[in-house]
Specification:
Elements (H helix, E strand, L loop, with lengths): L11 E3 L2 E5 L3 E7 L5 E7 H13 L6 E3 L4 E5 L3 E6 L4 H6 L3 E6 H15 L25 H4 L56 H6 L11 E3 L2 E11 L3 E3 L4 E5 L3 E8 L5 E8 L3 E4 L3 E18 L4 H6 L11
Antiparallel strand pairs: 1-2, 2-3, 3-4, 5-6, 5-11, 6-7, 7-8, 9-10, 10-16, 11-16, 12-15, 12-16, 13-14, 13-16
């Protein structure tokens, strides 16, 4: 990391990659294997929204494409950082680069960059209508917003000693888009001795109080089966490339998905999911969603730490179901 540039922002270096920003754009530079200097430019707001998810999700399952050029691949003890490596045209032209880093090293660089490049009025986790501008010269910081802890239930939201329900008192008011969502909780009448084993809560009410977008949390966990509902508005800030199957249940409103080959980006499908629809993203695809208004999406993840390697060895399928 060097001293601040003329716009007030630090410049960062990780391996052969450099990262600098100005008032409107993030600029990623690298040197190809043939020694040719290359650069790529992203809108600063889009870059910070993608960087926010990569940091908060711990590099997630598989590919976190910031766009069709730059991104990361999680190997769970290390992370690939690449430019053009999963872009068919750039790969064919030989102007791509991929380098692998220990997870702790890339995380520390990304966290420092996110903190330095995010100004006081911008929240990269919020919907565009619920935050200030990401643009302009360096103007303070917003550390509290970018270090929100991801909400992860151990068994089920609301159980004793587990993740608490969202309330006004916890700083989670009902979102403007979900003012009509009932907030009543279900009645529970467990038999004596089962008070901490039987549970239910109002999932729609819980989601209506989400303060962030495109950020799945765990609301119930059974071994490696994770129910990860989330609220979505505007554009998924990354293009997620799967290393396992993801199931989607559209709970309210609608999301439009662009799906492509995860290695080349070649388009595969356009999926429009409306309330009540279910879909599954195979392990060989990448996808990006567009939510015209705030919607609720239930994502089911198989979080088994061995699953990605079983798929690579051909022991588990890349598709959710075979007919």
């Amino acid at each position: 990391m060097s001293t601040a540039n003329e716009h007030g922002y630090q410049t960062f270096k990780l391996g052969s990659f450099t990262f600098r920003r100005d008032e409107y754009f993030a600029h990623i530079g690298w040197t190809t294997r043939a020694g040719k200097p290359m650069s790529h430019t992203m809108d600063a707001g889009n870059f910070l929204r993608a960087l926010m998810r990569d940091v908060a999700w711990g590099f997630f399952y598989g590919w976190v494409n910031f766009d069709n050029v730059v991104g990361t691949v999680n190997h769970y003890e290390s992370v690939d950082l690449y430019a053009g490596a999963y872009n068919g045209t750039m790969k064919e032209a030989g102007v791509d680069l991929l380098e692998n880093f220990p997870t702790a090293e890339i995380r520390a660089t990304f966290e420092a960059m996110l903190d330095d490049w995010t100004n006081a009025v911008f929240d990269p986790f919020a919907a565009p209508q619920e935050t200030g501008t990401p643009y302009g010269r360096k103007n303070g910081s917003n550390t509290a917003k970018i270090t929100r802890a991801r909400e992860l239930a151990k068994r089920c939201v609301g159980l004793k000693d587990d993740l608490a329900l969202r309330t006004d008192e916890r700083g989670a008011p009902v979102n403007r888009a979900f003012a009509d969502v009932p907030q009543e909780q279900p009645e529970l009448h467990p038999e004596p001795g089962f008070e901490n084993e039987v549970h239910a809560f109002n999932l729609f009410g819980f989601l209506s109080r989400s303060q962030v977008t495109w950020n799945p949390s765990f609301t119930s966990v059974v071994k490696h089966s994770y129910m990860c509902p989330t609220t979505e508005e505007h554009i998924l800030p990354i293009i997620h490339g799967n290393d396992r199957v993801e199931w989607f249940f559209q709970m309210t409103d609608e999301i439009h998905w662009d799906c492509g080959d995860k290695n080349t980006g070649k388009p595969l499908a356009r999926v429009i999911m409306k309330a009540g629809d279910m879909a599954a993203m195979p392990a060989y695809c990448r996808h990006q969603g567009y939510s015209p208004k705030r919607s609720m999406l239930l994502v089911w993840e198989n979080g088994s730490p061995s699953l990605v390697y079983e798929i690579q060895r051909g022991e588990s399928p890349e598709v959710p179901v075979q007919f």
